Amino acid sequence: MRFIPADIERVDRQKGGMWLWLLQRISAALLLFGLLTHLIATHILSIGELSYDNIAERLQSGFFITVDILLLAASVFHALNGTRMVLLDYFFKDLARRRILDLALLVFGLAAFVYGLWALWPWITT
Questions:
Q1: Can you spell out the DSSP letters for 7-42?
Q2: Which residue from 121, 37, 115 is spatially nearest to 76, judged by alpha carbons?
Q3: Which one of 48, 61, 82, 87 has the lowest number of neighbouring Cβ atoms within 10 Å?
Q4: What is the pTM of this model?
Q5: Does residue 77 sit in helix, strand or coil?
Q6: 93-116 pLDDT tens trace
């Protein structure tokens, strides 16, 4: 006997699906970890004046480069996936328009991620 009507299962897939919902929660946890690490390193451990030299010294650590890249990836994904969910709720009802939206957000997200990596590149390559 089936307890969930078929319509509910279909609507769930049309609204974004379980995996994107789960990745939204995982990216939120990564954002929390990354932001706390960033704030502690910036405002508690680096007591005094923030300068380019202080930040450059911190970014030479592999740990902080990794945290910053995870923070960048999580924030781009979390923001664009949230935007996608809101737009799917109100505007994009048919599959063709949803695919165009997905492609546009993917291209924009990759461009934002590459731009962020470009800003970190001098410390990634050292």
A1: HHHHHHHHTT-HHHHHHHHHHHHHHHHHHHHHHIII
A2: 115
A3: 48
A4: 0.77
A5: helix
A6: 788 888 899 999 999 999 999 999
